[in-house]
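Many introductory courses stop at the sequence. We go one step further.
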Amino acid sequence: MEGSPPPSVLSGKECTIMKIAISTDGEFVSAHFGRCPTFTIVEIENGRIRNTQTIANPGHSPGLIPQFLHKRGVRYIVAGGMGPRASGFFDELGMQAIVGVSGKVKDVIDQLLKGTLQGGESLCEPGAGKGYGIDKSTCDHVGEEGHHHDSGEVE
């Protein structure tokens, strides 16, 4: 289920409270969902932010992160990239993955509130994030403009 959540859901017409997790690397959306250092959890009620918190990635293990987020009430995951296996775990839990998203987390949250967030193609190939994030602080791929890591450097 890639793409954008229906605007009616984001505007709160179908759901008064929802939680969205954003794979986060500093103040930017992480291109590598499973290996991002943190997740920003945004709770939206009736079209307004009710709560925002940043939580550490519990670890990169098949199925662990979808279960971890699902138990916290998250129903949408926003990321730069995600492999088909992870996407399948989210599908099994009835959660929607929105990939192909980049930029500052605060801008993505604004787009969520306005119902204008657009997903697209995954920004990384499966396995491209090996060794990044929770394993080490550098990527093994050529970064795109605005691609950031914990070091604070732009690739």
